[in-house]
Amino acid sequence: MSTQDEDFMLEDEEDNSGHLQPPYSSLSSAMVTSPTTDTLDSVVLESSPFDDFGKDGDTGLDESVDLGPSELAGGIEINIGKRAGFDLETTTDTEQSREDKANISSYFADSGDDFFDSLGAAKDDNQLGNDLFTSIAISKSEEDIFASEMNAIEIKESDVIGVGASQDGLNNEGMRRINSFIRKSNEEEKRETLDNVDQFVEIAAAATESLSKDLKDQGFVNESSEFTEIEPENVTRIHLREHAASICEPETIAFEGEGERGASDQADLQIADIEEEEIEEFSQNDERPGFLSQLSQSQQLHHQVPGVLSPPVDSSARLHGPVVGTTPSQLSPVGTPIHLGDGDCQDVPALSPSIPPIIPPAFETQSSISGSPFCQPSQEMKSGSVFAPFGSTGPADDAFTSILSMSDADRRHDAWIPSDATSHILKTIATSPAGTYITPIEQLSTPGVLTFEPQSDPVRELVLRYMGEQEAIKRSVLTADSVTQDIDGLKKLIEAGCLHAAIDLTGVLLEQVGQGYGKCGQVIVHTLHSLQLWFCRLALMVKLRMYEQAEAEMRAFQTLDTPDLYFQFYANTYPGRRGSMVSFSMRLLHAELPLLCGRSQETLDRLYYMLAVCNRIKLNLSSDLSEDGSATHMTYEARKVSLELWSKRETDIMYKIGSTMLSVKDYEGALIIYNSLLEKEQNTRLELLAGIGRIHLQMGNITEATRIMKEVEEATKTDGSLSCYNLISRGLVAMCGSNFFDAYQHFKSAVQMKPHNTCAVNNMAVCSLYLGRLKDALNTLEQLVHSDPANTLHEGVLFNLCTLYELETSRALHKKQAILDLVSKHKGDGFPVGCLKMT
Amino acid sequence: MRLTKPTIMPHHPLVTESRDLCGDLISRLNDAEISRTPGLGAFPLGNLLTLPQNFGNIFLGETFSSYISVHNDSSQLCKEITLKADLQTGSQRLSLSSIGTQPIPELQPDHSIDDVIHHEVKELGTHILVCAVSYMLTSGERMQFRKFFKFQVLKPLDVKTKFYNAESDEVYLEAQIQNITPGPIYMEHVSLDPSQQYTSAELNAKDGKEGSHPVFGTLDCLSPSDTRQYLYCLTPRPEIYSDTRLLKGVTNIGKLDIVWKTSMGERGRLQTSQLQRVAPGYGDIRLTVESVPDTVALESSFDLVCKITNCCERTMDLTLVLQNVTSSPGLLWSGVSGRQLGKLPHNESLDIPLSLISVIPGLQTISGLRLTDNFLKRTYEHDEIAQVFVVSVDT
User: Which residue spans adopt a coiled-coil conformation according to this UniProt entry (chain A) (predicted)?
Assistant: First the structure.
């Protein structure tokens, strides 16, 4: 080390463009610039967390892993094993729920199962020799069977506290009381009515409530010490008997889940023609960000409970959500707890204090319905316009207008099912005299442009920095000012690839509709036009990887479920139109944003919510209703087109779910999604199959990838146009097996077949490097880039080229400038300059 | 530059519909993207390969590959270039260069000497790649320089093992393999290479309709910090029974051999050291069950054959006493108690046929066998010898 020479540091840096990245970033944000100051030395790697084994690892030598069996004799091992077992179980359930996309209700039921499973898992950890606890578990299952629609959270709370108490070994008054209640429930199990259970839970909860204070004092310390005391016992048992596995076997409550799933399936079958006898809604005020609804059916009482939809709540919505006391309330996306009555608006029960009282509807609901020729079986989905009095037109006219003014295509594309809370507000608005119902502002979407400064042109900045003002002036690209200030101008900018300028222009256009800079938080009237502008703006931001900004501006839209984003809210402007003003694409974008900001789980929640709505719409369509569940007359053709559209949208969502899972390297989940798509998408089956093969490659399963690629190849034997792609696939497989020479040959053949396939050329160059032929690689890429700059200046290709420059010479900057020059001449301001690694 | 496997560039298309404002334009932008899958715009993995973006992590058992390029940036001709690439680890120094020690006669301006080196990493901790280049200017002046690249080798897997000794001399090995890398790994191959004393059988597959398949599901992929348990059954080879010492004390069981792949088939392989187990001591007398039915009918008698081995150094004179103990009321001994078994020399064994009657249905444990050594007046109690399932057969 003493001879290390400063002169050569520069080359050090270039040889190693490496820097430590968070594990997922390579997928989520394709090309991250690597600061040139990175050297191997600067790579901060975490030290090995388990040094105690002194592991040395060697295939040939015997010095490798020193495993300490003595350490393993402790009870903790068993415990770990058990936990792992449970984890496995829970994941399987999640898998199932993913597969269960065919119907909403079973999805919801499944997520409920997860919750129960995990509860069961938690119990079993503490369960050893704890009779008291077991009895709680049993009584719980009874409750579930008898009263499946009972509020889940209440049961859980009482159980959990009960478990904690028993585990702490407290023998105090409250515990005994619980115990006695449990016994009572055991005795009465057959005769117990719903009310009894209800009462029981309430009393039990009250009893445990009094315990919770004590628990806090003794709390976790006790808990953990209890753990260590229990575990050795477990170990000895295992040593004594070979049946130890059966001891460890979880006595989980799997049967509950199955029972409930079965019940909900039935509910699902009947969901289309449910007459609401009784609506009961329960929701959980807990941390679960997922679907807050339960759909279940009590088999004994034959209660049919319609599903409750509410989008996943994001943080901003939660801020608004008023905290409600003990009454079961629904945490809706707008944070409005609403307890729906019999489906009759007039029976709206007392609302939470944060909501102004709703003025009773102007029309007698029943009478107007009977007068309407379009009698709708589902009151909940009743068309709002029927009752909305506007201007001189009478209600009878409106019924016709509503049908006429709403074209087939509009209805088809705009259809969306609002959450129950939102649909309730919409219904209230529709049934109130115009202008009398004022929606609270926190339940409205109040977007505004957040950045005032115009977007700069990053390409120009680089040119200015490295090539001087002269060159920078020469660069001629469109800006927001150089086009007409309207949609045409916007289109021109996007066509020219000037996406930054296009964002600026959307800002200007939004200013025109009163949603410009600083308008965030102000109540404004949304129009189709303004929302489309927003979509365009946000989509462009995502395209330019301005994720944080996009998310900040998207935040005002909350969960895209506020009442003012539906046509029904603007009965005057859009008479008779129903559905979502927000386009489906914008919803997808909204769902995808959290992932791009590093919160993949939130994205999955939103996507699965969309999938659930999508499935509901498809179900409505196939059961002779309109998309949103209202009764309507549709021709066979219209219905078919509509089904096709929504099937396509469903597929879009599925692809997004798959790619989200892939982003977080959840290969198993992604493969399940894509394999299920294989069935659906017969037209693109082979392409998708090859894609699945690539997922296997990325994962490292070369055997399976080889098999899949072979299958694709067999199937496309006759189609010569695809053989180029097969060759590329072969090349990829060979490369993953470290047969770089074979890979090179495959890519080369592909290039010979299609000389303009940029991908193949690029891959060939990449392989050259692994064969030690840097010069070849450079020549290939340079030729590619210079031959057709307009089409081949792609960030991936340029990233490779610049990486090679850095490897080749310490004068890489000069060579990069030549590339920058090309980019400046051919590309708009939306070009991702990060790939040049010049900043 | 470290040559990890290239990656496939991910593609995140914006989904638009033709009704959207500029929807067509944006979808045209997507179509122009060459990293997308042809014909399948929404799929996130295309065919475009990108070079490694950074050094990344390197783990024990993986192969370190690096590209070494000596490029003549000057306008002068260089002569007699030698390139040495050594890897300095905590304990040794390895020469990795594949270019011979013979100097390369000359290097033209703007030309380069290229080499790709590979090394399978066998040590944890700091590694330093030392590249030394010496060359001669046209003036005949000898020049040289060295460069250092440092990297840390991390541990990818955490392996814990546990032994279960069965009465039948079989040993069950439970190995917990935990992925402690930050990314998922694909377990290509996990096997146990038994030592000479044992044969091993894998217990990680279950029989299904389509033949046997692993218990780990369809995908052999281990997510970060996930643990997977492998179970092996080791049976002593018959020939070592002749020397019972081999079954006592510390014995070598074998080694675990693990091969895994990470992103794009980056391969890693590790083998554990010899796993050792301490065989349980059997005391003076070892009692094993030679034969016992697993299911018996209620209120019927059944036979049990036990084998008694004298494991101590002296000869024993044994008396067999059968007690019906309260801890297992479901089975009653049938036959003579207090039987003299005679002398049993060191290391010899004796089969004793016994008979029991079942009186309570369910899983019953055989207990209450007492052996008394008449020389020392010492009684050996054997409880929980075996279990039988008693069923009622009246239907």
Answer: none
Distance from CA of A23 to the nearest CA of B (A): 7
Q: Return the residue matching tokens 């087939």.
A: A408
* φ, ψ of residue B361 in degrees (nearest 5): -70, 160
Q: Do A81 and B229 touch (CB under 8 A)?
A: yes
CB atoms within 10 A of CB A423: 24
Judge: B20–A585 Cβ closer than 8 Å, yes or no: yes
How much is the CA Rg of chain B, to the nearest whole Å? 34
Low-confidence ranges of chain A (pLDDT < 50): 1-198, 200-201, 203-308, 310-405
Condensed to tens digits (0 to 9), the pLDDT of residues B286-325 reads 888 888 998 999 888 999 998 888 877 788 888 888 888 8
Contact call for residues A703 and A709 (beta carbons, < 8 A): no
* Contact status of A659 with chain B (Cβ, < 8 Å): yes
SS (H, E, C) A655-713: HHHHHHHHHCCCHHHHHHHHHHHHHHCCCCHHHHHHHHHHHHHHHCCHHHHHHHHHHHH
Q: How far apart are CA A110 and CA A101, in angstroms?
A: 11
Say how many C-beta atoms besides its own lie within 10 A of residue A473's C-beta. Answer: 11
Which of residues A151 and B236 earns the better pLDDT score? B236
From residue A71, alpha-carbon distances to A226, A248, B334 in Å are: 21, 20, 45
Cα–Cα distance measured from residue A517 to residue A748, given in angstroms and rounded to the nearest whole number: 53
The helix/strand/coil state of A422 is helix
A641 CA: distance to closest CA in chain B (Å): 15
Asked if A588 and A542 count as a contact pair (C-beta separation under 8 A), the reply is: no
A-chain CB neighbours of B221 within 8 Å are: 667-668, 699, 701
- How far is Cα A558 from Cα A435, in angstroms, rounded to an integer? 24
Task: Tell me if residue B210 falls in helix, strand or coil.
Answer: coil
Interface test with A, best of B36, B53, B73, B145 (most A CBs within 10 A): B53
Q: Does A667 touch chain B (CB under 8 A)?
A: yes
Asked if A4's CB is within 8 angstroms of B146's CB, the reply is yes
Q: Give pLDDT, residue A828.
A: 82
CB contact under 8 A, B52 and A84: no
pLDDT value, residue A373: 33
Measured in angstroms, the CA of B331 and the nearest CA of chain A are apart by: 19
The answer to whether the Cβ–Cβ distance between A56 and B164 falls below 8 Å is no
Interface of B with A in 220-259 (CB under 8 A): 220-221, 223-224, 226-229, 256
Chain A CB contacts of B266 below 8 Å? 700
Chain B residue with CA closest to A702: the answer is: B265
Looking at residue A234, what is its pLDDT? Answer: 36
B chain contacts of residue A86, beta-carbon cutoff 8 Å: none
On whether any CB of chain A is under 8 Å from the CB of B56, the answer is: yes
Mind telling me how many Å the CA of A38 is from chain B's nearest CA?
9
The verdict on ipTM greater than 0.85 is no
CA distance B337 to chain A (A): 27
pLDDT at B142 over 70: yes
C-alpha of A40 from chain center: 36
**Closest B-chain CA to A62:** B273
Query: B281 pLDDT band (50/70/90 cuts)?
Result: low
User: Given an 8 Å threshold on Cβ–Cβ distance, is A700 in contact with B273?
Assistant: no
State the amino acid at position A505 in one-letter form: L
Element (H, E) at A512: helix A499-512
**Interstrand relation of B316-322 and B339-344 (parallel, antiparallel or unpaired):** antiparallel
Q: Is the whole-model pTM more than 0.90? A: no
- pLDDT, position B244: 59
Average pLDDT over chain B, rounded to whole?
A: 84
Q: Rounded CA gap, A321 and A336, in Å?
A: 6
User: In whole angstroms, what is the distance from residue A686 CA to residue A543 CA?
Assistant: 28
